[in-house]
Amino acid sequence: xxxxxxxxxxxxxxxxxxxxxxxxxxxxxxxxxxxxxxxxxxxxxxxxxxxxxxxxxxxxxxxxxxxxxxxxxxxxxxxxxxxxxxxxxxxxxxxxxxxxxxxxxxxxxxxxxxxxxxxxxxxxxxxxxxxxxxxxxxxxxxxxxxxxxxxxxxxxxxxxxxxxxxxxxxxxxxxxxxxxxxxxxxxxxxxxxxxxxxxxxxxxxxxxxxxxxxxxxxxxxxxxxxxxxxxxxxxxxxxxxxxxxxxxxxxxxxxxxxxxxxxxxxxxxxxxxxxxxxxxxxxxxxxxxxxxxxxxxxxxxxxxxxxxxxxxxxxxxxxxxxxxxxxxxxxxxxxxxxxxxxxxxxxxxxxxxxxxxxxxxxxxxxxxxxxxxxxxxxxxxxxxxxxxxxxxxxxxxxxxxxxxxxxxxxxxxxxxxxxxxxxxxxxxxxxxxxxxxxxxxxxxxxxxxxxxxxxxxxxxxxxxxxxxxxxxxxxxxxxxxxxxxxxxxxxxxxxxxxxxxxxxxxxxxxxxxxxxxxxxxxxxxxxxxxxxxxxxxxxxxxxxxxxxxxxxxxxxxxxxxxxxxxxxxxxxxxxxxxxxxxxxxxxxxxxxxxxxxxxxxxxxxxxxxxxxxxxxxxxxxxxxxxxxxxxxxxxxxxxxxxxxxxxxxxxxxxxxxxxxxxxxxxxxxxxxxxxxxxxxxxxxxxxxxxxxxxxxxxxxxxxxxxxxxxxxxxxxxxxxxxxxxxxxxxxxxxxxxxxxxxxxxxxxxxxxxxxxxxxxxxxxxxxxxxxxxxxxxxxxxxxxxxxxxxxxxxxxxxxxxxxxxxxxxxxxxxxxxxxxxxxxxxxxxxxxxxxxxxxxxxxxxxxxxxxxxxxxxxxxxxxxxxxxxxxxxxxxxxxxxxxxxxxxxxxxxxxxxxxxxxxxxxxxxxxxxxxxxxxxxxxxxxxxxxxxxxxxxxxxxxxxxxxxxxxxxxxxxx
Length: 958
Prior knowledge:
Distance between the termini: 76 Å
Number of strands: 49
CATH class of the largest domain: Alpha Beta
Number of helices: 19
């Protein structure tokens, strides 16, 4: 009855008065802060605590419904059923078209709202998207989820997507997007225990720079903390969640943890806090508002928070602060407004609407990048004698964060629709039979749609035949010829019942290991085999009386003869011979070739896919290769041999139509690469090396010759650039389409600082614009560049600085294809010599060797930890004046050690040595001192040389 009364009052028509609403928090005329304060004051302490978990319960006495953080919406609404599936995030960014991306975000936001009338399990209006982690290393398993290796491009695309998701009205949110994953999360190997070392310049200029724009523009309503550690401290308790992230916005933000991350703080994983109460209290104080832990079971979290309150680890005001952040978002979402507020009427009709289907096709078309074209593309629509072959020719794969495809237009289907006729096709996969060399029996699968457990039998028909797809690194999948389903392990048996490889463990992975006698062992390679379930490799062999296959040790594995029933290469070659054109579609399987929790182990195409392309090209020189994956690929000799090469990400339901439009010239390719494509893995340092400045990572610092540079992409037309002119607020350049086709050019502006105290990027993207031009048309493109955009982080004074000097301003079609340039003289400042007489934080070094950045305390601060004797830090151009006589430092570490002060180099003149006999813990700092010799004077590069195991937080030379 109370609920009915509240609902009735909330929907009263006519002029609104104070009495129209049962409580002030339901009055949309009041400021958000007043509504939050009113509701907060009505909640009991237990109700407040209950709101700190991902699954916030209903509060019936106030008419408040349950609320859940975390609907996935990376490139469409995920995990809720059939919705519009747009290109993967890296594909969206490859459009370099913020206006289009805002439309996509708006469509995704509408579809998230579309479920609000039904509220299915897993639904909520707090969306966990976009991912703005920088694609620093192309081997990262989650490369498909990010946008770019560049922070400016990432910031602009994420802001556009976020603006679409929010609806562009911060006071009335369509949805509440959350940026993932704060901070420096770009490796999956040991992701919960590895620490990303971020020296201040890298943190400010690179990693934070990707997160700030969307927050500052009110295009996102919070961040998700990542699993990893930064400078030795788990991001779940990173104080920058409060100190930095909240400083970017004047609005309340709702910060959440990643799933199960609070539990990682405990012994067994990060071993940072001994109890959940201590960990959750630290997270709350650091800036976390909502705990994603233990799935829907909120009891451990609420018990931990209550324990922290009762023991003084938390104050009630700490809980109030977090809850107020949560409630502010819920108020802005219109939850407490009459009829759900501004967006409360959106219904299910928007989900996969015709308009969204059209938008999906447009996005998939704009996302594709033409990598090579020796006058083969575009194809003539009048020439219908084509073949479409390859493992991805007639299928669409989805990824972990994808929605369910409402329909699928494959490359083959798209081309057939374009031509109005069927085309020859082949997947290019071998069809094999596996015969036990000991028994003569064959591995057989079920023939029904639901399949059956694999077993050995005398059946030699299609039940004993499997199509083998090679995904590289020895991994293959087996698709039953009997029912077209993939074989997977279900924790009991191996069954042919999966439409595509899927799931967290991806149990559809195998290896065919050839033995010396020519037989093969069938090894199970599901992802969990690398975890704790099995410490040794496991294989298949008959384990039941009826020949049912199960897991056995290598010694008990069955030896199989591999009979090739049909050669995939031969079939594909036959399909393309005599055709006007051969289109080969190769690429990745998103659940296998790198994904969450698994980095890529190989940057090349699968060997059999590369062999397929070579064979097809040999049979038909007019071969177009479509590479469909989500990351840079080392294509080797392949890209030199074939005449045309087109890259697309897994682009959603309209992939085939988009590819057909591009291949046949109804659309002109204009996507551009958002990452450097390297020649080889040898171009890259360890995936755990986060110092892009020292290790020369990304296009900003990479000095080698890439396979394809950042910003690269070809067109069916050509463009001429005019002179670059300075105008108010930036620069302008005239761009002319000098070809015979309409097309889009992505005009990119880079800067380079010629002289600096600090190592500077070779080039740095500062502005861009995608412009459409008809044949012969000229447009003047304006690109914003302000003097403050030239700033970098000055470690000597811990602030942003624009140095006085000359800057190159470069405009072109990619980072390496510069068409017009000029110079800019900035009236900035000169960074003064270091004043080491002031207390200097050790992390503000200029160079280093054999050190790690570590947590100064568990609460906040960064120190430098020595990885071994002889580790050093350089502090350049220090002004020691007429002489510094004493070195003072704060050090910690349980072992005795020394800090040497040297000049000029790590082995230069020794002017003093400070000694420590150790402290009680790594967090117990003590003051050590040393007298300095008379050589410590004038302008010097000062080196601090540390013994192993020592931590240094601050120091001074006076």
